[in-house]
Design goal:
376 residues; alpha/beta; D-Amino Acid Oxidase, Chain A, domain 2; 2 domains; 7-stranded mixed sheet; 5-stranded parallel sheet; binds flavin-adenine dinucleotide
Length: 376
C-alpha cells in the first residue's frame, strides 16, 4: 500500500494511529495545530484500562516502555462524605488493572516512537474540502494546503474534519469542572494531602463534587465538578483567581475544611473547563476517503474512558488499514462498524456513571454499586 495517511491532530488517538501504521510499514503524516510538543502542558493523570487503552499500547508495540511510566500506588481510591467521613478506602494492592500514568509522558512516549518529521507542528487546519473519488484537500491557517487519499480527523472535540461526515456539534452538558493544583502538597498543604491519600479521592453530593488525584511527586490535582449554566460560570471574574476560588467554594458551604482547601488553597489560578458532549448514538454514512477517531467521533462527558477509547480507535483503525492493503473503503467500513456501537455503549455507561457520581442518590448509590461490583 502506498497511500500516505493524513492524520489531523497529535493527541493520543492520532499518535497511536500513526504509530500502529508505522509498525505495519505504512507512512503517515500528522498535522498538529500546536507549535511544538511543549506548547501546552498536558496535565492530568490517566488510568489506562485493560480492555481498550492497554491493548492499544500493545498494538503500538510499546508495552514495556509504558510500564516504565506507571506511577505506583496511584490506584488507591477514597470516597468521602462532604463532612470528610471516609466511606470507602481502597488501597492500591497492584491488582486494580488500571495503571496510572501522566498524560504528557504517555504522549511523549508515542511522539518518540515515530520517525522524525511525522508530526508537522504549527499546522492548524482551517478547512477541508472533498475533491471527489475519496480525495480531500486540507487547508491550513498559514495559507498552505495538502491533498490526501485518506484523511483521518483525530482533532478532538471541535474537529474541523467532522463536518465532512456529520453536522453534529458538541453541546454543553450542564456541568463544568474547575481545575486547581496543590504543589509540594506534603510539605505545603499536609492536612489536605493526607486526606487525599496516595491515589484518588472523590467527595460527592448531588450536582457537585470534588475529584482529587495525587500526581507525580506530591502534586495534588483537583477537578471541582459543579452543575451550573454557562452564564453562571461566565459571571466569574477569571482575572481574579482568589475571587473565583471563593465563589466556587461557596457552593460547597458546610463541607469539611480540608476538602474546601482543595479549592481555596490552589497554587495555580483556577481553570474553568466547561464540559461538552456529542449525541450518544452519533453515526454517519460511509464517506469515501475520510473518517474520525477519538473525541472527534464520540466526545462524551468525562468518564475515565475518553483517552482510552481514542487510543483504541487509533489502534483499531491502524490495524484495519494494514489488513486491507489498497482497499481504503473496506478498512474504513470495518473500523466504523465496530467503532459506532463501541463508543455508544461507552457513552451510555458514562452517562450512568455520571448519574452515580452526581445524581440525587450520591454518594450512597455509588458506594452500593461499588460494593456490589456493578459499576458501569
Ligand atoms: C477535564 C477532563 C478530564 C479528563 N480525564 C480523563 C481521564 O481521566 N481518562 C480518560 O480516559 N479521558 C479523560 N478525559 C477525556 C480525554 O481527555 C479525551 O477523550 C481524549 O484526550 C481524546 O483524545 P483525542 O486524541 O481524540 O483528542 P485530543 O486529546 O483532544 O487531541 C486532539 C489534538 O488535535 C489538535 N487539534 C485540534 N484542532 C486542530 C486543528 N484545527 N488543526 C490541527 N490540529 C488540531 C489538538 O491541538 C490536539 O493535540 C478528560 C477530559 C477532560 C475535559
Amino acid at each position: 500500500m502506498t497511500t500516505t495517511v493524513t492524520i489531523i491532530g497529535a493527541g493520543l488517538g492520532g499518535l497511536v494511529l500513526a504509530r500502529v501504521l508505522h509498525v505495519n510499514g505504512i507512512p503517515a503524516t500528522v498535522y498538529e495545530a500546536e507549535s511544538s510538543p511543549t506548547a501546552r502542558t498536558q496535565g492530568g493523570m490517566l488510568d489506562i484500562h485493560e480492555d481498550n487503552g492497554q491493548p492499544a499500547i500493545e498494538a503500538a508495540g510499546l508495552t514495556d516502555e509504558f510500564r516504565d511510566l506507571v506511577l505506583e500506588g496511584r490506584q488507591a481510591m477514597r470516597i468521602l462524605d462532604r463532612d470528610g467521613t471516609v466511606l470507602v478506602d481502597e488501597p492500591d494492592d497492584g491488582t486494580g488493572g488500571r495503571p496510572e500514568v501522566q498524560r504528557g509522558e504517555l504522549r511523549q512516549l508515542l511522539l518518540d516512537s515515530l520517525p522524525a518529521g511525522t508530526v508537522r507542528w504549527g499546522h492548524k487546519v482551517s478547512g477541508v474540502r472533498a475533491l471527489g473519488g475519496g480525495r480531500h484537500e486540507v487547508s491550513f491557517a498559514d495559507g498552505t494546503t495538502a491533498v490526501t487519499d485518506l484523511l483521518v480527523g483525530a482533532d478532538g472535540a471541535w474537529s474541523r474534519v467532522r463536518p465532512l461526515l456529520s453536522d453534529a456539534t458538541p453541546e454543553y452538558i450542564g456541568s463544568s469542572y474547575v481545575e486547581t493544583y496543590l504543589l509540594d502538597s506534603d510539605t505545603r498543604h499536609p492536612a489536605t494531602a493526607k486526606v487525599v491519600g496516595g491515589g484518588s479521592l472523590m467527595a460527592l453530593a448531588p450536582g457537585r463534587g470534588i475529584l482529587a488525584h495525587r500526581e507525580k511527586g506530591d502534586t495534588v490535582h483537583t477537578y471541582v465538578a459543579l452543575d451550573a449554566s454557562r452564564e453562571w460560570f461566565a459571571a466569574l471574574d477569571l482575572t481574579d483567581p482568589g475571587a473565583v476560588a471563593t465563589r466556587v467554594a461557596q457552593e460547597f458551604d458546610g463541607w469539611a475544611p480540608d476538602l474546601i482547601a482543595l479549592i481555596t488553597d490552589s497554587d495555580t489560578a483556577p481553570i474553568h473547563r466547561p464540559l461538552f458532549a456529542l449525541p450518544v448514538e452519533l453515526r454517519w454514512d460511509r464517506v469515501p476517503g475520510v473518517t474520525l477517531v477519538g473525541d472527534a467521533a464520540h466526545l462524551a462527558p468525562p468518564n475515565g474512558e475518553g483517552a482510552n477509547l481514542a487510543m483504541y480507535d487509533g489502534a483499531e483503525l491502524g490495524r484495519a488499514i494494514a489488513a486491507h492493503p489498497g482497499d481504503v473503503e473496506a478498512a474504513l467500513g470495518e473500523y466504523e462498524q465496530a467503532m459506532f456501537p463501541r463508543s455508544a455503549e461507552a457513552a451510555s455507561d458514562g452517562g450512568r456513571l455520571h448519574d452515580l457520581l452526581f445524581g440525587e442518590d450520591t454518594p450512597h448509590g455509588l458506594i452500593a454499586a461499588f460494593a456490589e461490583d456493578r459499576m458501569p
